[in-house]
């Protein structure tokens, strides 16, 4: 995949030479250029990012992409830190909740207050998201969307072929994967990387203990809950689920796991709704080619994350203006719909017509709105909205160690509780 991506620009830059044409320096558009650091490198992600790029191009603004591959931004933050430390920050960067807070604490971010006030951001974004997009009363990030992690993506043709109904309980969920496995398919398309292990595990936790348990364990970081029998049960349930992976899951990128569902190799993937971006990119339609449903047992809550565009302080007045333009573009109604229709997410704004979204997103948008009202819209641990990076990384370490060994559930629960105590 990396080779194909690199091959295009390389080829483009070599073409004039091989054809003997004069090589022209790229022109910077009159209105300037923005440099944007992000980790949107899969087919669906790049397509969604293209919506912003062309939106800005329509306004005469150039685009310098700075992609850092690595799902959930695992590599992006280190690259961003080194850019900022060397005094050369990009115009803007994609970050997740607690990381946004971290950057704000260090100082050095542009405030987006003027745009936020004009557009009434305080009225349109849900409170659990505002808690991160604002810092000490100032708006520090423009929210692209709301993603949620408690989704299952299912191959409809396989379900039909094997006579599988959409499962609503954990027991039926496992039974359906067994059916697929018995018929020679992979039950669960799985990417064995720490952030993906943790993404699936937070689903299992929510399914095992419900929203209050999830909140107490992962948001309040309550030691007794982390060590509880329910947490041990969650690890044991996770062990059972892991039996439906294929043997080659170790290190697999998330979009390659999605491709297993798309290509009729696997029945399900448990993944955030960026996975839907891959189905969209493959021209597949919800309910016709694939199903989307909340992970059985998690229907009463939504574990969310949202990509925030933060901007770095600059003395350059042209860049300042471009930052405002970009913030305004991201929060605008048309962009919020168009972006989500490519990314797989739902709009971060809560005031948009749902009928412009596909069937999965309509359902998702409604569930996010209901969860925001019922206090069950809870931050995802794996995607930076439940706890600070040190705690998140501690969770990644233990959950991955569990996945890659035969560690018993009670040992994993105790180790995770200890690691979280040390990290917080
Ligand atoms: C981001 C998504 C991204 C996914 C996979 C998440 O943390 O919020 O935008 O598509 O990671 O990289």
From TrEMBL:
Signal peptide: 1-25
GO CC terms, sorted: periplasmic space
This protein's UniProt keywords: Signal, Transport
Keyword Ribonucleoprotein: no
Location(s), subcellular: Periplasm
UniProt keyword Acetylation, yes or no: no
Primary subcellular site in the record, as a coarse category: periplasm
SUPFAM superfamilies noted in UniProt: Periplasmic binding protein-like II
A Pfam family assignment: SBP_bac_1
Free-text function comment from the UniProt entry: Part of a binding-protein-dependent transport system for a sugar.
Family the entry assigns: Belongs to the bacterial solute-binding protein 1 family.
Protein name, per record: Probable sugar-binding periplasmic protein
Protein source organism: Larsenimonas rhizosphaerae
């Amino acid at each position: 995949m990396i080779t194909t991506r690199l091959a295009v620009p390389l080829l483009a830059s070599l073409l004039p030479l091989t054809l003997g044409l004069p090589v022209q320096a790229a022109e910077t558009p009159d209105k300037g250029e923005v440099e944007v650091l992000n980790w949107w490198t899969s087919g669906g992600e790049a397509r969604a990012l293209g919506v912003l790029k062309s939106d800005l191009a329509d306004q005469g603004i150039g685009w310098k992409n700075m992609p850092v591959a690595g799902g959930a931004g695992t590599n992006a933050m280190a690259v961003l830190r080194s850019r900022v430390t060397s005094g050369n920050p990009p115009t803007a960067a994609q970050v997740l909740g607690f990381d946004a807070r971290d950057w704000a604490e260090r100082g050095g971010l542009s405030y987006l207050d003027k745009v936020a006030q004009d557009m009434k951001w305080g009225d349109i974004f849900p409170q659990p998201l505002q808690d991160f997009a604002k810092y000490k009363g100032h708006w520090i990030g423009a929210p692209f969307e709301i993603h949620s992690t408690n989704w299952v993506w299912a191959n409809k043709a396989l379900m039909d072929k094997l006579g599988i109904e959409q499962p609503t309980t954990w027991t039926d969920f496992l039974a359906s994967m067994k059916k697929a496995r018995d018929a020679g398919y992979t039950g669960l398309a799985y990417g064995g990387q720490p952030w993906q292990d943790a993404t699936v595990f937070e689903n299992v936790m929510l399914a095992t203990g419900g929203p209050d348990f999830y909140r107490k364990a992962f948001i309040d970081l309550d030691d007794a809950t982390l060590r509880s029998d329910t947490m041990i049960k969650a690890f044991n349930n996770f062990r059972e689920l892991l039996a439906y992976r294929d043997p080659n899951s170790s290190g697999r990128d998330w979009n390659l796991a999605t491709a297993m569902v798309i290509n009729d190799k696997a029945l399900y993937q448990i993944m955030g709704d960026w996975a839907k971006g891959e189905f969209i990119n493959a021209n597949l339609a919800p309910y016709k080619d694939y199903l989307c449903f909340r992970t059985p047992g998690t229907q009463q809550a939504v574990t969310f994350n949202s990509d925030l565009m933060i901007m770095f302080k600059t003395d350059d007045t042209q860049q300042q203006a471009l930052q405002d333009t970009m913030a305004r573009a991201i929060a605008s109604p048309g962009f919020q719909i168009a972006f989500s229709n490519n990314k797989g997410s739902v709009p971060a704004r809560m005031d948009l017509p749902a009928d412009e979204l596909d069937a999965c997103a309509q359902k998702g948008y409604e569930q996010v709105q209901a969860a925001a009202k019922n206090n069950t819209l809870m931050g995802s641990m794996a995607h930076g909205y439940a706890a600070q990076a040190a705690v998140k990384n501690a969770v990644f370490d233990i959950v991955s160690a569990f996945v890659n060994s035969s560690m018993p559930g009670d040992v994993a629960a105790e180790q995770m509780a200890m690691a979280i105590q040390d990290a917080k």
